[in-house]
Amino acid sequence: MAAKNTPGEFDYNSTRSKLLLTEYGRNVQNMVKYIVNLPTKEERNRYANVVIELMGFLNPHLRDVADFKHKLWDHLHIISDYKIDVDSPYPLPSPEAIHLKPEPLGYPNQRIRFKHYGKTIELMIAKAKSIEEPARKQHMVQAIANFMKMAYVQWNKDSVSDEIILNDLYELSKGELKLEDNVNLNKVEYRTPVQNARNNNPRNNQQNRGGGQQNRGGGQQNRGGGQQNRNNNQNRNNGGSRKY
Hints:
By secondary structure, the protein is an all-alpha fold. Among the domains are: 17-98; 108-191, no CATH class. 55% of the residues lie in helices and 0% in strands. The chain is elongated. It starts with 24 loop residues before the first helix and ends with a helix.
């Protein structure tokens, strides 16, 4: 009996080893695996430099990154699972440094006295309180008050008196910072953005389009009248040429 042809095992990606760096593909990983098993270091160095050039060709966007070659050599060691033994021109990377996780950032839980001024105002006030030179300290306090007035107008979208700003400054500084009563802060007004009424009025746009349609219609009538005049002239010419 003839032997039955049984298909061999199919090579699926799910049965292959995991791609360590997918941007270089399966072929580069197979090349690196081949280099790892080479017997002599001279051969490994020669083939490793060829693969480095190929990796740079496959990812040209890395050329804009600082230490371009250094990054490629690090990727070569990562693809080999840190098993390749070659003379690298850069320090060898370690798995601990590659997979190092950053420290979690703490969420600020500080209470803000006036949220429309923000935390920055409180930091500026603390800085102004530490200034010892009187003239410089007075300029700093006035700049803080002007900034507070601008922040208040942006939040409330209305005018605010200088007295309210000075009282808030006095409260935030716990009575340590204040301005003289005759000091006038910068004038700040909130202006509502003005839209172009000509472009945003649909009735005007509709009327303009309607007027243009009428003008085109009038032109059509004029062209029709000109055609009628030419026909009348032709009839008169034909009538004048007849002989009775």
